[in-house]
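queue> pop job 88
queue> type: inverse folding (structure -> sequence)
queue> payload:
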């Protein structure tokens, strides 16, 4: 199984915990409201998971992760990958966001190769909203962060009874 690693950056703001998510770019995701943790594949057997998480954070935000204590949120399967995620308290100005790029043929079978950013934006979300916007396989990391911080269960707005 492929290995991936990432960082869930969080901060306290206006009495709430907020997390940084990135929006996948390219023509397949341009009009979808699905977001991701900053994460990506571990390059090779010599690259440790935390080193890969730090590299991916910088590739997907344009900034190195802030200094701080990394909190191991464990691992969870997401699609064909086993994701290893760390939480890190810190801040990132989303106005400085920029991301690395990839190339793909678009439209399919057109022979037209185009370049796209891997992610097109980064935003801060409170925990319930983050659970709503994330792919379901990544929600476990929001729950683990909330548990680590001593917060109650996190319900996304769409599943809330209120």
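queue> result:
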């Amino acid at each position: 199984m492929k290995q991936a690693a990432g960082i869930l950056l969080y901060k306290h703001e206006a009495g709430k915990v907020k997390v940084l998510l990135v929006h996948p770019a390219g023509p397949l995701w341009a009009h979808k409201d699905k977001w991701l943790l900053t994460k990506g594949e571990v390059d090779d057997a010599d690259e440790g998971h935390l080193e890969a998480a730090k590299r991916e954070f910088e590739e997907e935000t344009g900034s190195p992760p802030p200094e701080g204590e990394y909190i191991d949120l464990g691992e969870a399967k997401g699609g064909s990958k086993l994701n290893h995620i760390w939480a890190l308290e810190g801040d990132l100005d989303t106005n400085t966001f920029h991301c690395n790029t990839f190339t793909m043929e678009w439209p399919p079978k057109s022979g037209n190769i185009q370049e796209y950013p891997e992610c097109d934006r980064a935003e801060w979300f409170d925990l319930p909203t983050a659970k709503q916007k994330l792919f379901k396989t990544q929600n476990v990391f929001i729950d683990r962060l909330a548990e680590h911080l001593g917060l109650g269960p996190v319900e996304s707005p769409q599943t809330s009874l209120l």
